[in-house]
């Protein structure tokens, strides 16, 4: 497990396969192992190893954004070729490339199954995915990215529970109205409201618990998690940000395109209508579209979740509305003073070639808060780790190792 980087150090834990033992100029190096993650080394930050990336679900609204052309030209005459082109563009924009070596292979093992349930939090229906430990020493709370669909994290939740030896309860909390049913009757929720929602969940569901709480946030969920940590410092023991989206990346064409669509009510409605149309097709057709153009490396679970949860009008409208409010807020700098104050309790895992959390952001964190544990994953899982089993297993192992290390301190 990566230990805390020494203050003022320019090193970070860059996770590499054990066969890659050379420096950034290709010379052999003898670098000390800083953690117990499988087959990994710690090396200087400036060594950037390129690895093939698995398909990523980062902001799937971009998929439907590109499909708007088929509406403008005429569905009957041109939808089919445009759908094909749009899906290919979407996969390219999200950094999806065919997977090759470097993936995690694990023997099948009987895992405790995560249970889904609906919980009313401040009168809002909330989808949860959870495994309750019989004798928990802590409670791990997983905050999704955008889309904030808890079911995408099934493999991750189960693997994390297993890696913690069944001694921690694990719960993924979905965002309001990023759900299978439109329980809020078309209401749109901003990122700020989603932050309030997570705070309310902890205060409502875990108020009587004496167990320590560990927050794990993915993508924009990392930003949300930091805000929750800031409000509930007496309840939160530690925080882990996975492939964090903490500020806008001005060099990302994808983010610019999503921002343009999300700011337009008309285009957002058009994309959401198209999503609901695709979602109304025969299940076998929907599954074939998702599998062919989005989920060639996705697990069966992730494909089913995309079909049943994502392709809904209310879900896509909330995904885009939340994205608009994200982009407005993330023009500001993160609260570096708070991050520095809690740096020994915070860890971030970045991915190679992840435009949502580029390595330039990692370098900025290392300068602003040198005590934060920083890692870079180079196994090819990147931003959409939760949509395939190898990514879920690998990241769950990383999080479990960090938690175990912190508990020993």
TrEMBL record:
Cellular component, GO annotation: lipid droplet
Record keywords: Hydrolase, Lipid droplet
Domain of life of the native organism: Eukaryota
SUPFAM superfamilies cross-referenced by the UniProt entry: alpha/beta-Hydrolases (SSF53474)
Localisation: Lipid droplet
Pfam families, A to Z: LIDHydrolase (PF10230)
Keyword check for Hydrolase: yes
Annotated InterPro entries: AB_hydrolase_fold, LDAH
Molecular function terms from GO: hydrolase activity
Family from the record: Belongs to the AB hydrolase superfamily. LDAH family.
Record protein name field: Lipid droplet-associated hydrolase
Organism: Urochloa decumbens
């Amino acid at each position: 497990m990566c230990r805390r980087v020494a203050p003022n150090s320019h090193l970070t834990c860059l996770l590499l396969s054990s066969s890659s033992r050379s420096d950034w100029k290709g010379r052999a190096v003898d670098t000390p192992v800083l953690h117990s993650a499988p087959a990994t080394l710690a090396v200087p930050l400036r060594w950037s190893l390129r690895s093939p990336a698995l398909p990523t679900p980062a902001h799937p609204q971009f998929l439907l954004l590109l499909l708007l052309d088929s509406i403008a030209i005429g569905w009957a005459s041109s939808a089919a070729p445009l759908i094909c082109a749009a899906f290919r563009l979407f996969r390219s924009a999200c950094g999806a490339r065919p997977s090759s070596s470097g993936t995690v292979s694990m023997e099948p093992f009987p895992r405790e199954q995560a249970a889904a349930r609906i919980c009313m939090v401040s009168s809002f229906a909330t989808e949860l995915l959870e495994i309750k430990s019989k004798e928990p020493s802590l409670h791990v709370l997983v905050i999704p990215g955008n889309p904030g669909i808890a079911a995408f994290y099934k493999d991750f939740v189960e693997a994390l529970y297993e890696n913690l030896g069944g001694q921690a309860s694990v719960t993924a909390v979905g965002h309001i109205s990023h759900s299978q049913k439109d329980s809020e009757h078309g209401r749109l929720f901003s990122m700020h409201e989603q932050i309030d929602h997570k705070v309310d969940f902890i205060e409502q569901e875990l108020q009587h618990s004496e167990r320590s709480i560990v927050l794990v946030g993915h993508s924009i969920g990392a930003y949300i998690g930091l805000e929750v940590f800031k409000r509930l410092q007496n309840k939160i023991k530690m925080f882990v940000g996975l492939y964090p989206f903490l500020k806008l990346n001005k060099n990302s064409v994808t983010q610019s395109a999503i921002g343009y669509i999300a700011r337009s009510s008309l285009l957002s409605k058009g994309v959401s209508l198209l999503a609901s149309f695709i979602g109304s097709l025969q299940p076998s057709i929907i599954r074939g579209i998702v599998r062919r153009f989005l989920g060639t490396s996705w697990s069966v679970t992730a494909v089913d979740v995309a079909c049943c949860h994502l392709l809904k009008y209310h879900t896509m409208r909330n995904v885009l509305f939340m994205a608009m409010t994200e982009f407005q807020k993330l023009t500001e700098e993160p609260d570096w003073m708070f991050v520095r104050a809690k740096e020994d309790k915070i860890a971030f895992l970045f991915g190679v070639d992840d435009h949502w959390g580029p390595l330039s952001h990692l370098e900025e964190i290392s300068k602003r808060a040198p005590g934060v544990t920083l890692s870079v994953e180079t196994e090819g899982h990147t931003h959409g780790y939760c949509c395939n089993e190898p990514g879920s297993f690998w990241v769950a192992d990383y999080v479990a190792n960090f938690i175990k290390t912190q508990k020993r301190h």
